[in-house]
Structure formats: C-alpha cells, structure tokens
Amino acid sequence: METNINFSHIPVFYKEAIEALDIKPDGIYVDCTGGGGGHSSMIAEKLTTGHLYTIDRDPDAIKVLKARFDGNDKVTIVNSRFSRLKEILTENGVEKVDGILADLGVSSYQLDTAERGFSFHSDAPLDMRMSKEGLSAKDVVNTYSAGELSKILSFYGEEKFARAIANNIVKYRETKEIETTLELAEIIKESYPPSVRRKSGHPAKKSFQAIRIEVNSELLELKNTLDDMFEAINVGGRVVIITFHSLEDRIVKVKFNDFCSGCTCPPEFPVCVCGKTPKGKLPFKVKEPTEKEIEENSRSRSAKLRAVERVEE
Length: 313
Fold this sequence. Notes:
Blueprint: H1 14-21, E1 28-31, H2 38-45, E2 51-56, H3 59-68, E3 75-79, H4 85-91, E4 97-103, H5 108-112, H6 137-143, H7 146-157, H8 162-173, H9 181-191, H10 194-197, H11 205-215, H12 218-223, H13 226-232, E5 233-243, H14 246-259, E6 280-281, H15 291-296, E7 304-310
Parallel strand pairs: 1-2, 1-4, 2-3, 4-5
Antiparallel strand pairs: 5-7, 6-7
C-alpha cells in the first residue's frame, strides 16, 4: 500500500514514553493517537506474540498508518476517536490490555498542511477538524455569540484580550462571513493593543489553540476517557499520557492522583470504615522535555509526560 501523504511528526518523549509503558513482548497495547506511527512503531518492535491497537480519528493519519504497518499482523488500525476505547476493545474481543499511550499533541502534518486550516501562518479555509467531520472552526467563529467566543478564548487559550477579540469577530461577521485563517488572524491581531502587538509571538496563537480545542472537544474527550483507560488495563499495566496544554495536564494529574488515593474517611475517624485502597501508583511524578529536545523540536516546549500503574483490581 502506498500513500503520498507526508505525515511527518516528531514524537515528543519518543523514548521516554515507550520506557514508561514498560512493554512486555507478549502484552496487548493501545496507542490512542497513532498519528504518523512514530510511537506505534516503537511499541510494535518490542512485541513478539503481543498485539497493538493503533487508533486515530484523522483519516489522513489512517492512510499513513495502513501503509506503514501493511502486512504487520501484530498491529490493528482503527479510525475512531479514542473516547470509544471501551467499544473498540469489545469489538476486537479484548477484555484487558497491558498499556495505553496517548500523545495529545497536534501533529506537524496537521499544523503544516495549510488546507487543514489549523495554522495562522498560511491562508486556507477555516477548518481545524482532526476528523474532517462535524463542527468546524468556521462554524465556531461565525455562529457563536460574543460571550461564548470570549469564554472559549479566555478558558482554552488563556487569552487576556478575549473579550476584545470576540467583539471584533462578531462585528466583522456582520458584513462578511469569516472564511479563512488569515482573515481570522488579522481580526485577532487588530484586537490587540499596538504596544502589545509588537512583542514577540503571533497574537493569533492562543486564540487558534482555543478554537481548535473547542472544535475537536479535546478536553472533554480526555476527561471522559481516563476512567475507561484505567479500567481497561491489567494489574501491572500502565496508562501513559503526553500533554501540551496546562488544562490537559491538570486533568491528567488530578485523575492519576485519584487512582492512587486510598482511604477517603474524614481525618477525625479513628479507623478506616470506607475500605478503599489505592488502585494505582505513580512510577514517577512528571517528566518534562530536556533543553536538547526543545532545541530539536520547539513544539515540545510545553509537553509533560505522566504515567500511572495499576496495582490492584
């Protein structure tokens, strides 16, 4: 099978993520974000009688993955959101797995392919849909109210000028629908005070990130799936997550700590009556990219790697 899609993506924590999974040659593993197959290839290489399920919602990624693993009977490729993890495992007759990996970063292919509409550097139709289906960035900027837009830009993008940007988007679309990435980027830029606009970094960066998160329901997708991930692993198995946004990392950190929490009785109780014991443990606290990795891949700067191991059913 051949494909001319150049799904180039430098996996962040390339080796560290694989080490964190602590792969058993006969184990069953899931890569929830297959992308270009970087992490999946390293997992598959370590398997003898084991099996890997590689999931991605992006149809372009699926084409690349099918070409990359053509003829490899140790790998099953699934075109889906990873929030369907429980259903995917059931459909494949799998009860439990030994490790799950999710790299939550947007791929270099998605960012660098102009027509996907993720980037503010090139003019293209506003899209940002990882699955190429459903709600698009164009829908968001042209139909959401000023209040809704401001909330998204402020919360997901931590954008200081969210209200001004939202108001200007609504004002602009009164005369013309916002259709392209550069149209939106220019509206955002003009919403910044001139003194701030001249500082380093493009003014549209945070807003584009926020709109992308909204379009793809990224935080909801993560939040709704972490319990399923943990429930799906065997004792001794691990869930490994790579995040690129403070809100993502917070969700993962809190949930992993919950898995490792035991007794929930009030401190004034002399003895435990709830009977709860920790189901998980943290193999390490958190890993962050080295200066060398940041130099080689600037998009790794905000990345964090966390893992949790299941210690009892």
